[in-house]
From TrEMBL:
Residue span(s) of domain DUF7884: 6-93
Family to which this protein belongs: Belongs to the CFA/CMAS family.
EC number(s) stated in the UniProt entry for this protein: 2.1.1.79
Protein name: Cyclopropane-fatty-acyl-phospholipid synthase
Pfam families: CMAS (PF02353), DUF7884 (PF25371)
One GO biological process term: methylation
Native organism taxonomy: Bacteria, Bacillati, Bacillota, Bacilli, Lactobacillales
Active site, UniProt feature: 356
Gene3D superfamilies cross-referenced by the UniProt entry: Vaccinia Virus protein VP39
Coiled-coil segments on the chain, per record: none
Key words, A-Z: Lipid metabolism, Methyltransferase, S-adenosyl-L-methionine, Transferase
Keyword Lipid metabolism set for record: yes
Cleavable signal peptide: none
InterPro entries: CFA/CMAS (IPR050723), CMAS (IPR003333), DUF7884 (IPR057206), SAM-dependent_MTases_sf (IPR029063)
Length: 391
């Protein structure tokens, strides 16, 4: 009885939009003014002790297991919860961090493979043709996802102001679009590293198919163990979120070690302006070992590693739109996904995509590009940002 009362109070104060909640006893309550924008059906009682232990895991699992069903947009509902000062996402009574994560080389490899080695065929269903699994860059309102992903690749490479024949290391190279574009269109000599066997095999085949063996190399290797000469440039997209809070300093020290004197790096990743945080459900089901660092945290590590910041750009709204497009794509290919995975996986993945979109929309998380140099800031770069936008 007490659990029911507390859960109802939780629902009553958790949203900024009007919602309708149907409880396990069949009774329906409406919260907020106006017609409900989203309807929630609670099929089984949710123990309050589980919510207090970890609200994100408890509610995420309840949705995956159909203990909770939602009619309407998950993104709209979760964004509303982030915007409500009294919701379980903002109330300190319901916030819980996970214990410290392990990020040994072996655990990092297992973490990466648990996500990225779901299979190239799965990602091909809903990513664009570039197979780029990170924030796109929308130069025009009507850019397609593929156009926006290529915009992002060129935006990153242009920021480096690279010279033909120079060397580039791409840490966490994904399916290789950035590194191979650098080789093919910017005449750079590139090395990409990944811990995903699926990605490694795909990039190796792309290098062969595109005849770039003399300019491009991909390695299945931990970023901490690379045995190469220093590079003129380094890129790393969507990588530092995986290294762990305790290894962020080592990550930026590694970048500094691999950069030549006055070398330039573009580091692109999810960052919280409010400070670093874990998410219990994301860590358990999507990105094991994941940690989103705070802006101040990253800046401190960059400076302590002997590098300096040349430019910072926030791309939060771009990642929101990217995730919304991925969600649309995912929904369109559900018949194909069902041939690979069960309904619990589908509900989990749908929740992941829409919850992340809501988190960016609400400003709970951001994605930031850090242009950094080894030595005095931007010593080798043009004096203004104009060069970044020239064809």
């Amino acid at each position: 009885m007490l659990d029911n009362m507390i859960f109802k109070q939780l629902m009553k104060h958790s949203f900024t939009i009007p919602v309708e909640v149907t409880y396990p006893n069949g009774k329906t309550e409406k919260y907020g003014n106006g017609a409900p924008q989203v309807k929630i059906k609670v099929n089984e009682k949710i123990p309050v002790k589980d919510l207090l232990r970890n609200a994100s895991i408890t509610l995420g699992e309840a949705y995956m297991d159909k203990k909770i069903e939602v009619s309407g947009s998950l993104q709209v509902l979760i964004n509303s919860a982030y915007e409500s000062a009294n919701s379980f996402l903002n109330n300190n009574k319901f916030k819980r961090f996970l214990p410290k994560q392990s990020h040994t080389e072996e655990s990092s490899k297992n973490d990466v493979q648990s996500h990225y080695d779901l299979g190239n065929d799965f990602y091909k269903l809903w990513l664009d043709k570039t197979m780029t699994y990170s924030c796109a860059y929308f130069e025009k309102p009507d850019d397609s996802l593929e156009e926006a992903q290529m915009n992002k690749v060129h935006h990153i490479l242009k920021k480096l102001d690279p010279k033909p024949g120079s060397s580039l290391l791409d840490i966490g190279c994904g399916w290789g679009t950035l590194m191979l574009t650098a080789a093919r269109e910017y005449n750079m000599n590139v090395v990409g590293i990944t811990l995903s066997e699926e990605q490694y095999n795909a990039v190796k085949q792309r290098i062969k198919d595109e005849g770039l063996e003399d300019q491009a190399e991909v390695l299945l290797e931990d970023y901490r163990e690379l045995d190469h000469l220093p590079f003129d440039y380094i890129t790393s997209v969507g990588m530092f979120e995986h290294v762990g809070e305790e290894n962020l300093g080592e990550y930026f020290n590694t970048i500094s070690r691999y950069l030549k004197s006055n070398g330039v790096a573009l580091i692109h990743g999810i960052t919280r302006q409010q400070g670093g945080a874990y998410n219990g459900w994301i860590n358990k089901y999507i990105f094991p070992g994941g940690y989103v660092p705070g802006l101040n945290e990253n800046l401190t590590h960059i400076i302590e590693s002997g590098m300096q910041v040349a430019d910072i750009e926030m791309l939060r709204r771009h990642y929101q739109r990217t995730l919304e497009m991925w969600t649309d794509n995912f929904h369109k290919v559900l018949p194909e996904v069902r041939k690979m995975h069960d309904e619990r996986f589908i509900r989990m993945w749908d929740l992941y995509l829409q919850a992340c979109a809501a988190s960016f929309e609400s400003g709970n998380i951001d994605v930031i590009q850090y242009l950094i140099s080894k030595g005095p800031s931007a010593r080798t770069l043009p004096m203004t940002r104009n060069y970044m936008y020239k064809d």
